[in-house]
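Saturday, quiet lab. Running sequence design on the structure tokens for the scaffold JK sent over.
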């Protein structure tokens, strides 16, 4: 964020200001919300819909919200190691390279549930990208505990819902 990197307030007199105002509670909450939106690559309207759903469910709203964001298909593809970034995972999902429970799914915001299997399509496995990715994934195994990866058939499944302890994102959801 530009405000964090330049270390002064925006405007003509920002550099001249000798004091730095303490960030209000609203400013802190806004910054954390924007950070979450940028990390997961979603727009404001979609984020609000996720928040309303998390608020409706039982439990802590912040932890439920992060759990819902983590169980999106593009994020699961990223966490399984099929992509280097969430943006790349979103593109791979959008291009239709993955099957969820045997059905082609090209919606990045698809909510993966416990027991769902995410598989690279057989026609996509023969591409250069996925052949190289399979070799890279054999040497590097960094899959979270709530996911299970099977390299032999280039698939992964969701074992349980991600808890707040499983999500290693520097974010204060409170």
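Result came back. Writing it out in full:
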């Amino acid at each position: 964020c530009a405000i964090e990197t330049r270390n002064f307030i925006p405007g003509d007199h920002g550099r001249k200001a000798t004091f730095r105002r303490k960030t209000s509670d609203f400013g802190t909450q806004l910054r954390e919300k924007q950070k979450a939106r940028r990390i997961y690559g979603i727009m404001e309207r979609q984020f609000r819909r996720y928040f309303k759903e998390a608020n409706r469910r039982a439990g802590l709203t912040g932890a439920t919200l992060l759990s819902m964001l983590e169980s999106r298909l593009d994020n699961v593809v990223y966490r399984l190691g099929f992509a280097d970034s969430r943006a790349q995972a979103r593109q791979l999902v959008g291009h239709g390279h993955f099957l969820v429970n045997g059905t082609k799914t090209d919606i990045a915001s698809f909510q993966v549930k416990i027991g769902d299997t995410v598989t690279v399509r057989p026609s996509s496995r023969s591409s250069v990208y996925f052949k190289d990715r399979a070799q890279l994934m054999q040497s590097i195994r960094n899959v979270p505990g709530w996911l299970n990866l099977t390299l032999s058939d280039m698939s992964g499944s969701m074992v349980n819902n991600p808890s707040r302890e499983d999500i290693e994102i520097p974010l204060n959801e409170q």
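Notes for JK: The helical segments are 2-6, 25-40, 44-56, 61-70, 73-80, 86-94, 122-125, 128-139. The chain has a mean pLDDT of 86. Ask whether to fix the surface positions before the next round.
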